[in-house]
Every structure is written in C-alpha cells, then in structure tokens.
Design brief:
Blueprint (H helix, E strand, L loop, with lengths): L3 E3 L2 E7 L24 E2 L8 H7 L7 E6 L13
Antiparallel strand pairs: 1-2, 2-3, 2-4
C-alpha cells in the first residue's frame, strides 16, 4: 500500500469515534479498517482516495480524523515514534 502524497505529505485516517472500544472498526462509505491507535493510509490501491478521506473526516461528529503521516510509513502518524 502506498499513502496518498501531496507536496511530499502523506495522509491517513484514524478512528476518533467517542466511546468506541479500541478494536478495528469499519466506517460506512470507506474501504479499510480503522482503529484509535493506528493510522490507516489513504490514496493507494484499494484505499479510500484523499478526497473521500477529507469528506469522511468533516464535521464535529466525524468517526475518523485525517492526519499527516511520515512519507514511506504506513501507520505512524507525524510526531509518533516508529
């Protein structure tokens, strides 16, 4: 899987559903599995597009948040240790 890159930035989605247990979740309208402690990349084959990810992360009740991830890293969010 490759992450979506925009001007040397890569993005992924992380589950932020309040009260949800820390186990894998599916999100309506998106392919993939989402958890609170792991970022799921977007933009690669079989992954949501960056546009779909942005749409899914809109609004205060969005179940996921769009985060920047380190290029060439599939799961570590920027600022997290590898």
């Amino acid at each position: 899987m490759t992450s979506s890159k925009t001007a040397d930035k890569a993005y992924g989605l992380r589950l932020v559903l309040p009260g949800a247990p820390n186990e894998p979740h599916q999100v309506h309208g998106l392919t993939g599995i989402y958890t609170k402690d792991k970022v799921t990349p977007v933009g690669g084959p079989g992954e949501p597009t960056l546009e779909q990810a942005r749409e899914a992360a809109k609004g205060p009740d969005a179940p996921v948040e769009l985060v920047e991830i380190k290029p060439n890293t599939k799961t570590a969010a920027v600022g997290e240790e590898d």
